[in-house]
Amino acid sequence: RVDTPMQVPLEFFKAWVPAVQEHARSLGKSKFGIFGEFFVEPERYATMTGRGKTPGMYGHDAFIEGPPTMKGGIDYTYYWYIFTALVTNRGGFADGLPLAYDAENRMLDLLEPSTGQPEFAMWTFCNNHDNWRMQVMAGKSAMQLCLKVITFWPGTPLHYAGDEQDFNTPGSALDGWAREELSVSMAWRSMETSLGGNTATWDNFDMASDSYRFVQRLNLLRQAYFGDFGKPECDRLETPRSGFPDVLVFWRGCDAQGVVWVAANFNKEESRSIEVTTPWPETTMLRDIVQESGRLELAVGAGNRVQLTLAPLQVHVLAAGSVRALPPSVTSVSPKHGAVLSAASTGGNVAVHIAFSQAMDEESVRSALRLDGSSLRSNRMVCKTAGASTPTHSRGCMEFEIGGITGLLPGIHTIEVEEGVRSVEDMATFTRFRSTFHIEQAPGPITDPLMVDQSGLICNYMTELCHNAPGADMMRIMELGGNWTKWLPYKPVTPWQSTPGRTVLVQYHAQGSASFIVADCVLHRQERCRTSWHGEMFLRTDNNKWGMLDAGRMELVDHFTWAINMSFDRFVNAKFAPYANWDKSYGKQKAREMRYLLPTFDPRSQNFLSDPFYDGTEAIRKYMVDNRMWPEDRSIVTGADSSSSFWLSHLCNQVPPYHAGFSDTDWQCHPYRASQDTEWCKTIGEDEDYFYQFNNRSTYMGDCGTCDCCRKVKPPSVSAVNQTCCILFNDLYLNYTVTGDLSRCMANPVAGAPPGPQTGSLVSAEVMAMFWCSFPLVVALIGVARKRNRSVVRMRFSPDQVRRVSGVARIWTRSLSLESSRDMASESTSADSSLSQEVAIMKPDRVLFASLEHVIEHSGGREKAIAGGLGKVAGLMCRYHPGSLICVTACMPGKDYAFAEPIGHVTVRVSGHELNVKVLRSEVVNEPGSNGDDEGPASIAYYILDHPIFRDRDDIYPAPQTARRTLEFYSLWCQSVARIIDLEAPDVYHCPDFHGAMAVMYIERPLPVLLVLHNAEYQGSISTQHMGRREARHLADVFNLPADRIRHETFIEGKFCMLKPIVDYARKYQHGYGICAVSRNYALEASLKHTVLWGLPELRGIENCMPESERMASAKMADSSDFEKARTAAKLFIQEKYGLAQDPNARIFVFLGRWVKQKGVD
Which whole-number Å values give the CA distances from 649 to 118, 738, 799, in the listed order? Predict the structure, then answer.
């Protein structure tokens, strides 16, 4: 199965498919099928099926040049017709199936090269991962109708996993909800689609379930009547000359005796009567071959016709004569699949009952039965239901009881019946049967996956973990705030020193699933505390300025449950955040509108308009509420990076201000109704629910597409009453509740630890607890002492090295095209004198350097924030930069900048809110030679920007880049830097890396810029999704810029890139010059690797400056030849010492840096 083949050129498949098939033939696979996911119009997948055809070739013996490609593919054409008929209640569109089959037989090359015969091999289906399941949208009866139709339709019926187990979770895989596991899965526990929860929560691959056996029977009937589909007759489809409203009638067969006749009523409310000419002669007796009881039987009447009345969604599958014999299969087993038996009541003794669809040969059954992999041949076996006597046999048994099974221990046990068990009619089962059951000593997470709080897990005075998960094979452990251990073999007791008051989580693996998680928390002895997945939780809303005005800290009120009371007088956007920053947040999946078109060969396609069907969190919530599975106060969230904010309001429920898919900020297409037309759209203005506007085709109305009339929802109203609501959030299941009952936000009492023997020394345990409590404090104090010791190190330059730094000024002689650029000096014949001449002429007097890393010297000492090499360079520049320097930086959390003087504030706008950034200033004036070097800076002015957003970060550089909080940080930073540039009007803006690169988008007048790339891997990029107009509007709001500027100046190859604006600025004003990297080799590498830098006239490599104290003695060498000799000697020394090949030209790689991908570690 090839995913989305339409995204790959056909020429590729013309070469790739034959190569794969040739390799398959070498492995003995003569007919290796390759199929595509054809989520495109028929005209497109016609080019990829067989040799391929274009429209001019349809109906003719003409093909695209080259070998055949794919055998067929997943055919959405039939799905959309079935969807339209059953989901949107337009049953008349069932006639699209024969219409499509006729068209595809003209459009597709169906020839099988190995046989020279045509074979229709397209895959038809009722469900897929990109849409809600049909049984959810239209009901189980509609789903069974679809299954019967595709079973006997030409091609290959494709079953979506879980349909055979009645999975009924609303949603699609695009919003995370239609890929339920067949094994135990935690993901679905918040989606109770029945009184017993969600079927997908449990191990549910039940081979004896009704739906599994229904699909099984359909497949067996298909095999019995159509065999191996070896003849062209198998694909000959016949339909009545005149159709019937809402009814699909067709018949086909591989021979005259195997013809199957299907009649299906697609109307969900009304019966339909039909009279049809059949392929059988008068008096032929027809029987419904799918029905097992109450089977329809009718005789063909005069003129070979039959009359039939079909109830709503009823299907009859008729064939002549007796129903063909099918292979036997298991119909039931006891203990049932997933059953939990008590060890106390059974004593480890179990009797197994197993039933078949036919009378079976007892000896064959006895030989095939297995329990936990061991044969039950020697156990006592009794026939409980004998097979009925018939002319062909009077022996055999349909139901067996196997006794004498003793000594079963607590855990998971497996019942199996091997393939090939024979019936008394000498037919064999075609597959192995498997079922599992549990024996438990006491309730635990394996037998009850809903158990997530296990009192007594932490045991023996907090020195061990006592597990109750028999049946698990592996496990891993984590203490909240730490890391998971590696996966360990399961043991009932494991050593583990728990920290008082901190949650311990254990994850078990059993039956192919790792969705068994329990937690415990102990304060002291038997006093327990509440467990949670996160250590803290915040509710951020636009009411509290996303945490700027009020943190919105939530309280842990029950296991895994956080709560807060919050007041509202309107609808507000909100998200849950588990950290003080925005490293992670929980929100809703956005609404996604599903629309589709009819194929162009259908005359109705010109005027067809599909009803919009939405998925996403709100659509799921509405479905659950409408079907009485959830109360109105319930919903779910996701931690995906693409999640958006959800609504909270004074109504204290989950009802949003407008329906899923609508927005009060985006213009959307309005389909005309009744008498509405263009003139109506231009004059209506607004009604009770919407604003209307004629589409002016501007970017502003981009989401309206090509529609003439656009609409957007009116914003929600404001209440006169400020209502307090209780908001509860479960951080394990990710569901939340909004209610006006404030008592639900009160803390629930915690049950104590279970009584029982506690081994070990209580005194020693308490001593260990005191040690673990004090240990982090001691470590922190030692770390502070070490940092202080390192902070007094001083570094110096030699005059030669300072001149190396001042070589940066050469850039300005190459490129400036500003209106105010100076005349360029001609180069002299001597390189050295040329450099000094250029520096003397072009050296800027005042340079503004903006960096989040900083080293600030002041009378009281030094304040620094360093993450790596950039911070070190920032410190060196402030000591040795020639001329006056303006250093702009931002306050770090926990730092004291009292040495700087407040001089006012600058006002910027971030995410629609005006923010005042406090500006502090500290100036250092140096006397010539005060640094031991006449070329030290004449003066340094430090501008320190202060705001809660700057103070509220865990690291110098906030992460992840996709978090809104991170984007708001950089928006605030770049706008503030631009305001300081406007204030000081420096000669040059020196920008290290991407962090301040967007400042050039805000400055009032252009000035020369210098971009120095310390690490070009970091570009401030968001590449998790393709950026379009919608994302541009979102970023425009954050960065206070027009959406068009965001799209054109920050988007590159579909991703958001903060580095791009300053590179484009250099292209526009400086002919592309003024961009450097920190070494010649790195400049070459970056210019080749990063597309944002392609096309620049040069990317200059400038070696980082280095203080004298850090240079080797070899720095005193007079010329470069001495350096090369010393380098060669050092290389040979290393090669000899570490047993490497002696090669002076070989490269030796030495890594000095952080172990992160951007530093080269993959």
Answer: 62, 9, 66
> What letter would DSSP give residue 27?
T
Distance CA 66, CA 47 (A): 11
Q: Which of 625, 628, 614 is nearest to 655 (CA)?
A: 625
Q: Is the preceding omega at residue 882 within 30 degrees of 0, hence cis?
A: no
Q: Are 536 and 564 in contact (CB under 8 A)?
A: no
- Residue closest to 900 by CA, chosen among 913, 908, 909, 891: 891
| Kind of pairing between the strands at 884-890 and 846-850 | parallel
Q: pLDDT tens, 272-300?
A: 999 999 999 999 999 999 999 889 999 99
Query: In degrees rounded to 5, what are phi and psi of residue 996?
Result: -110, 15
Yes or no: say if 733 and 719 are a contact pair by the CB < 8 Å rule: no
CA–CA gap between residue 433 and residue 232 (Å, rounded): 35
Comparing CA positions, the residue from 273, 282, 277, 263 lying closest to residue 305 is 277
CB of 671 closer than 8 Å to CB of 681: no
Whose CA is closest to 260, among 158, 119, 154, 357? 154
Token pair 């509108």 in the structure block, residue: 593
Contacts of 421 (CB under 8 A, 6+ apart): 328, 356, 360, 361, 364, 365, 368, 428, 429
Q: Report the distance separating Cα 197 and Cα 1110, nearest Å.
A: 67
- The residue among 400, 319, 321 whose CA lies nearest residue 358 is 400
Whether the CB-CB separation of 357 and 208 falls below 8 Å is answered with no
Write the CB contacts of 1092 (distance below 8 Å, at least 6 apart in sequence).
1019, 1052, 1057, 1059, 1060, 1063
Q: What is the pLDDT of residue 173?
A: 80
- Residue 1148: the pLDDT is 84
Cα separation, 765 vs 760, whole angstroms: 8
> In this predicted structure, what is the pLDDT of residue 114?
84
According to the model, what pLDDT value does residue 1101 have? 87
**CB of 413 closer than 8 Å to CB of 436:** yes
The residue with tokens 């890929």 is: 179
**Do strands 350-360 and 735-739 pair parallel, antiparallel, or not at all (unpaired)?**
unpaired
Instruction: Report mean pLDDT in 10-residue bins for the chain, 1162 residues.
Output: 91 95 94 92 94 94 95 95 95 96 96 90 93 93 97 95 92 80 85 84 90 96 88 92 91 93 96 94 96 92 95 97 95 95 91 95 94 92 75 72 92 96 94 95 90 93 94 96 96 96 96 94 88 96 85 95 95 92 88 86 88 85 91 92 89 86 73 85 88 82 79 78 93 95 94 59 50 59 48 29 31 31 32 32 75 86 81 78 87 88 92 92 71 58 93 85 88 96 92 94 93 86 76 90 91 88 93 90 82 87 65 53 79 89 85 62 52
What pLDDT shows up at residue 706? Answer: 77
How far is residue 383 from each of residues 415, 422, 444, 533, 624, measured CA to CA in Å?
Answer: 18, 16, 36, 52, 46
Residue 245, preceding bond cis, omega within 30 degrees? no
- Length of the chain measured in residues: 1162
What is the Cα 537 distance to its own chain's centre?
Answer: 22
Computed on alpha carbons and rounded to an integer, the radius of gyration of the chain in Å comes to 37
Nearest to 998 by CA among 906, 1065, 1068, 944: 1065
Contacts of residue 147, defined as CB under 8 A and 6 or more positions apart, other chains included, come to 126, 157, 159, 163, 214, 215, 218
Sign of CA dihedral 637, 642, 648, 654: negative
pLDDT in tens, 993-1052: 999 999 999 998 899 999 999 888 888 888 766 788 878 888 999 999 998 899 889 998
130 φ, ψ (degrees, to nearest 5): -90, -5
User: Which 3-state string (H, E, C) describes 125-136?
Assistant: ECCCCCCCCHHH
